[in-house]
Amino acid sequence: MKQTEFDLLIVGGGMVGASLAIALENSELTIGLIETHPLKSNSQPSYDDRGIALSYGSQRIFDSMGLWSDIAAYATPIKQIHISDRGRFGVTRLSADAEHVPALGQVLLARELGFQLNQRLQQQANLTLLCPAQVEKLNQHTDAVELTLNTGQHYSAKLVVAADGKNSTIRQLLGIGSWQQQYQQTALTANISTDKKHQGWAYERFTDTGPLALLPMSENRSSLVWTVKTGEEKALLALSDADFLQRLQQRFGYRAGRFVRVGQRHSHPLTLMQADMPIQHRIVFIGNAAHSLHPIAGQGFNLGLRDVAVLAELLHNEHDDCGNMQILHCYQQWREQDQDHVVKATDNLVKLFSNDIKMLGHLRGAGLAIMDNLPFAKHWLAQKSMGLGQKQPRLGRGMQL
Ligand SMILES: Cc1cc2nc3c(=O)[nH]c(=O)nc-3n(C[C@H](O)[C@H](O)[C@H](O)COP(=O)(O)OP(=O)(O)OC[C@H]3O[C@@H](n4cnc5c(N)ncnc54)[C@H](O)[C@@H]3O)c2cc1C
């Protein structure tokens, strides 16, 4: 049986798997990337029209990887964030000026990010693109993991990185369980034009049916993530553009101006998932394959990119055996706290802000108002949303590998 050997096989060429391959482009590792979809196709589900808010920390990681200069032209800076609770008096405002940073984050279309990542993958000398193809079988041996693809080809590697998304095939093949929260919520995404310039404002508005976020984008558009109870999205998807805009305006109010145009609408059912055992013999799970979040605070990809930055640092100079268990333990120890914290914080936020208990509503309003007057509390929240405040890998500190 003919088998091709690599140091590293990455399964999944979405945002996270692609970023890991690029982060390792100057290493001596031989890398194979297996992806279900052809890289040039528009069918890759994670590269749709959703707006991705990149934290300040993620921007720094991309900058250290030499990617930010390609991405910057498509990104819109977030200068301020306005957090409010519909029907309550309290608000909290965060600003880039107060944090002494040029922007709290940057927003770009997942499609445009995907295009830039795919361009870079195609120029990478130490990378073999194995797509379109899917993993069908996996065998763990002492010194390597062997993968069989639906194309009939066999590959082996010292380390397999599973970056194959929320419903990870690798997780299923290994029979690894996961902790899941079914929120019975669905996110409706669309790009919205307003009659007023957004001036870099991002809005997070909590409503009794779920949070509603508007992220600033180019040409006076904003990216909408509207969370509704599952089932309710059907009626919203079926509305005419004018009726949809009217319904949104009722829900959001006029703080961002009048909503005048809406692009294509998509829906995404929401669950929170954390894999039980993210490291295995010669296998590691990263990104959505390890933890998939509710988009309430726009943290999913940012968390996955921090997985990438740490793993790339640990693998970069590992020429002998990049799959040894010591490296994987080290990775797990480094990432555990940040992952657990973001998963729990996201879950708590969803539960706190997605219910209509009157007393809790008053407390939320008061909490937002108090926070707005406490600079240290706002600084803490801003640091968290910028992806700072934990032990930073080299790429997160602006250093190359
Ligand atoms: C509505 C919404 C808004 C969001 N907004 C934000 C935001 O503002 N900021 C933020 O940081 N995050 C955000 N996220 C989260 C972000 O989209 C995800 O965290 C990110 O897409 C995860 O990337 P990934 O590469 O880990 O997984 P995926 O994007 O799911 O990619 C997995 C890849 O693996 C491939 N694959 C799957 N199975 C196989 C197989 N067997 N063999 C080979 N390949 C396979 C798939 O084709 C895919 O390309 C949002 C998510 C949603 C739903």
From TrEMBL:
It comes from the Bacteria. PANTHER family: 2-OCTAPRENYL-6-METHOXYPHENOL HYDROXYLASE (PTHR43876:SF8), UBIQUINONE BIOSYNTHESIS MONOOXYGENASE COQ6, MITOCHONDRIAL (PTHR43876). Pfam families: FAD_binding_3 (PF01494). One of its GO terms (molecular function) is FAD binding. This is 2-polyprenyl-6-methoxyphenol 4-hydroxylase. Residues 6-344 form the FAD-binding domain. Its cofactor is FAD. GO terms for biological process: ubiquinone biosynthetic process. The gene is ubiH. Belongs to the UbiH/COQ6 family.
